[in-house]
Amino acid sequence: MHADQLLPFIANTFDQMPFNRLLGLKVTRFDEQQAEVRFDWAGQLVGNPVQQILHGGVIASVLDVVGGLMAVSSALSRFGDIADAELAEKLGKMSTIDIRTDYLRPGRGQQFIATAQVIRTGNKVCVCRMELHNEQGIHIALGTGTYLVG
Amino acid sequence: MHADQLLPFIANTFDQMPFNRLLGLKVTRFDEQQAEVRFDWAGQLVGNPVQQILHGGVIASVLDVVGGLMAVSSALSRFGDIADAELAEKLGKMSTIDIRTDYLRPGRGQQFIATAQVIRTGNKVCVCRMELHNEQGIHIALGTGTYLVG
Amino acid sequence: MHADQLLPFIANTFDQMPFNRLLGLKVTRFDEQQAEVRFDWAGQLVGNPVQQILHGGVIASVLDVVGGLMAVSSALSRFGDIADAELAEKLGKMSTIDIRTDYLRPGRGQQFIATAQVIRTGNKVCVCRMELHNEQGIHIALGTGTYLVG
Amino acid sequence: MHADQLLPFIANTFDQMPFNRLLGLKVTRFDEQQAEVRFDWAGQLVGNPVQQILHGGVIASVLDVVGGLMAVSSALSRFGDIADAELAEKLGKMSTIDIRTDYLRPGRGQQFIATAQVIRTGNKVCVCRMELHNEQGIHIALGTGTYLVG
Asked: Cβ contacts (< 8 Å) between A56 and chain B: which residues?
């Protein structure tokens, strides 16, 4: 695969993951500087039905997804063209080691935007910071994730 | 509500949460010592379709649910009978402050069992440890959650 | 105590804590927006003597100190003048609930600067983000702390 | 170095680290199953002088030390005899990636005992759980640490 096809390929892979589809996640920005994932409010994503707020697990999930996307981008950016088999093998070895989610405000809104940036990168481990905001810019949650990338 | 109706009522409230239903979670044990939540493998819970393993967000979600259940039990166990309005008010104020999830092994299995125990309790904050195993006893993930309970 | 004496009093209390003195910590900035703590390199703060880098525990300690300082400031800023006995009682109840430290780069340098900012505030719990840099602006570590403040 | 000299050598290396000496830490048990580190109460380890309790940074430090010790043991146990230069190189690459500390009860006591166990092991990353008790068995703190080991 040519280097310039990598990011679109990975974004598509994330969009197609069954649980990401269940949550309605869409990769809306993805380059070597930042990853962004969006999803719309949906009744099935609710935790507390009285308060009509997102379930904490939805928030943790999307933070993990956007952080993982960023970690993959960071790890792959040092390769140029890469054989498909090698790419598949590398992607198969990447995984979340641990993640911390801080819930800041109730998950209310019509659309939610998760972003990630790399704060430590290496050939084995990558650490990312993630944030979740709603469409009005309200900061809902924060994440810190450690990813195995090599 | 009589004290002995509290735990069944809360378990039912958790079972009815929309996102818990989407995940297929069932509260299978819930007393003042331990909370247990189970769910079955389902194709829509998959992260990586090649490897056929649970999405990390599913794991984080169920650990948060079982920890929250335990935290609620811990917080309510010091009340005896409680007026319904007061119970609703107290439950509405309870929330996850932060959670750490450690992914230990790939999420493979037919059924998954999440358990929680209280490690710090107080009238404002409760800390729980959570674990996820599959039906063969394989230890898949570990969580540590801090909950606001008063 | 008058409201404008509070922050200097608290900064002095932190400077006088025995373990903070052992580490050589100095509160160098402290207002309602930001807290900053500095310390100089010292041989006794070393972990690995071959590499001559700060011990991870030193880094975790100073991140906790600067985050705690910020949490105290955040909690007290909503009081105006406060009776000394009430202040002492409130301070006595404040404590760290949990903290995550991410080690980004080896702790090398001549002086180290820790800063904190509040990311969630309330009348019971405060969450802060902390950073440690050296005198050249190298980013060494990152922290996320949850504090009980009321 | 012969395989049976490894653990004593590593324990001694930890005992000699300058900051570990400042804290008064002693490795009191160290095999492939468990690591244990002890230290005595000392006035200079105090955070809050009114309450006479351990500084949170002391607790975070000792949890990191005992977890790191366990991670090193886990990583080295798969080698048999190892050349000194290779051992030094491997040890130099091992480091803490991130650690979470949960403070459960005030750090009061005459002696403190920190223990660790491995919960995830691999050729790159090791995850440990750590606990701190006092000499009366009171559980003071809990840690979860992720270590780079290869």
From this structure: 61, 64, 68, 95-96, 99
3-class secondary structure, C137: coil
CA distance C14 to A22: 49
Return the CATH architecture of domain B3-148: Roll (3.10)
> At residue B91, does pLDDT exceed 80?
yes
B8, burial (CB in 10 Å: exposed 0-12, middle 13-18, buried 19+): exposed
Q: Give backbone dihedrals phi and psi of B146, rounded to 5 degrees, phi first.
A: -110, 125
Interacting residues of C101 by C-beta distance below 8 A, sequence separation 6+: C56, C59, C60, C63, C141, C142, C143, D60, D98, D99, D101
Among C23, C63, C28, CA closest to C43? C23
Which residue in the set B97, B100, B127 is minimally distant from C125, CB to CB?
Answer: B97
Please say whether the dihedral angle defined by the alpha carbons of residues D87, D92, D98 and D102, taken in this order, is positive or negative. Answer: positive
pLDDT band per the 50, 70, 90 thresholds, residue D33: confident
Supply D95's token pair: 């480091």
Specify whether the CB–CB gap between B145 and B64 falls below 8 A: yes
Q: What does the domain layout of chain B look like in residue ranges?
A: 3-148
The whole-angstrom separation of Cα B7 and Cα B121 is: 18
How does pLDDT run across D72-100, given as a tens digit for each residue? Answer: 999 888 777 888 888 888 888 899 999 99
Count CB atoms within 10 A of the CB of residue C134: 19
Distance of alpha carbon A10 from the chain centroid: 11
**In angstroms, what CA-CA distances link A41 with A15, A48, A135, D95?**
17, 14, 11, 41
A120: nearest CA partner in chain C:
C104
Euclidean distance between CA atoms B27 and B14, whole angstroms: 8
pLDDT at D44 over 80: yes
Contact call for residues B115 and B130 (beta carbons, < 8 A)? yes
Q: What is the mean pLDDT of chain B?
A: 93
The answer to whether A125 contacts D100, with C-beta atoms less than 8 Å apart, is: no
| Distance of residue D42 Cα from the nearest chain A Cα, in angstroms | 33
Nearest beta carbon to residue B22 from set A44, A49, A65: A44
Work out the minimum CA distance from B148 to partner chain C, whole angstroms: 8
Please list every residue in chain C whose beta carbon sits closer than 8 Å to the beta carbon of residue B146: 97-98, 146
The share of chain A scoring above pLDDT 70, in percent, equals: 100
